[in-house]
């Protein structure tokens, strides 16, 4: 597998975007909806799958696209090819506040496992597939699901994480316990499983969910402080129900609404 060698620069702090520099005939593939801007002489095209096996015929292309369908992603990806004579630039934006993390697959022996919605874009030639869990517990209770994505090849891929990111290097046998949604990804040697929190008080009153992930080294783990599922949950919880506003910024809350006449009987 020989992915295109691309240069890049990441801009911004909390709402980042990555600008990729393409030499003539170099290309990058991206998830639908991540495109931000591009210069002239860059050709945009929609392809089946990730474009890593375009020479394998119709069945190969369908299989590549089918792998993405299993992860809940679109059957199609977008490829941006520099058809001009000089260097050109194309940029991709993060979907919500957080960080864009470059993953050089050559540093991880050609494979990196990540949450299914973390992938943003990659050099053409990087394979975006599925990583099946070998343990039933992950599938039943893993939160993000039985299937994770795997990025394979010898190029650079970019993943997106919410909030602040942490990179942990685990020694052999070292264990890190993480909220299932807070995992961005990890290297292929890390053993990943799901554990029950335990204890009736934790289960009923803990508010942190019934399960967490255990990551056992050796390997490297990337963690995010604000997974999108948590952000979406907070937003949904703040939406007024029945057309009534919430009593934000007031100690009285709903009682304050009652006193100021907002509630009608």
Automatic annotation (TrEMBL):
<dbReference type="InterPro" id="IPR036983">
    <property type="entry name" value="AIM24_sf"/>
</dbReference>
<dbReference type="InterPro" id="IPR016031">
    <property type="entry name" value="Trp_RNA-bd_attenuator-like_dom"/>
</dbReference>
<protein>
    <submittedName>
        <fullName>TIGR00266 family protein</fullName>
    </submittedName>
</protein>
<dbReference type="InterPro" id="IPR002838">
    <property type="entry name" value="AIM24"/>
</dbReference>
<dbReference type="Pfam" id="PF01987">
    <property type="entry name" value="AIM24"/>
</dbReference>
């Amino acid at each position: 597998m020989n992915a295109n060698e691309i240069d890049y620069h990441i801009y911004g702090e909390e709402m980042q975007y990555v600008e990729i520099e393409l030499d003539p005939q170099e290309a990058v593939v991206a998830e639908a909806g991540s495109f931000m801007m591009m210069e002239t002489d860059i050709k945009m095209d929609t392809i089946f799958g990730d474009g890593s096996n375009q020479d394998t015929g119709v069945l190969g292309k369908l299989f590549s696209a089918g792998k993405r369908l299993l992860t809940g992603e679109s059957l199609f990806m977008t490829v941006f090819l520099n058809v001009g004579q000089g260097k050109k630039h194309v940029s991709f934006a993060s979907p919500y506040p957080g960080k864009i993390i470059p993953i050089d697959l050559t540093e991880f022996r050609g494979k990196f496992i990540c949450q299914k919605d973390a992938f943003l874009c990659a050099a053409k030639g990087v394979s975006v597939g599925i990583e099946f869990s070998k343990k039933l517990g992950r599938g039943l209770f893993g939160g993000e699901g039985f299937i994770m994505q795997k990025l394979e090849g010898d190029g650079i891929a970019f993943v997106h994480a919410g909030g602040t990111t942490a990179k942990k290097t685990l020694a052999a046998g070292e264990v890190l316990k993480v909220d299932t949604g807070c995992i961005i990804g990890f290297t292929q040697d890390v053993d990943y499983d799901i554990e029950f929190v335990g204890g009736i008080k934790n289960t009923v009153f803990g508010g942190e969910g019934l399960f967490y992930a255990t990551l056992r080294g050796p390997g490297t783990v990337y963690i995010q402080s604000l997974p999108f599922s948590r952000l979406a949950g907070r937003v949904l919880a703040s939406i007024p129900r029945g057309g009534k506003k919430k009593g934000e910024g007031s100690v009285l809350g709903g009682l304050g609404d009652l006193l100021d006449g907002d509630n009608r009987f």
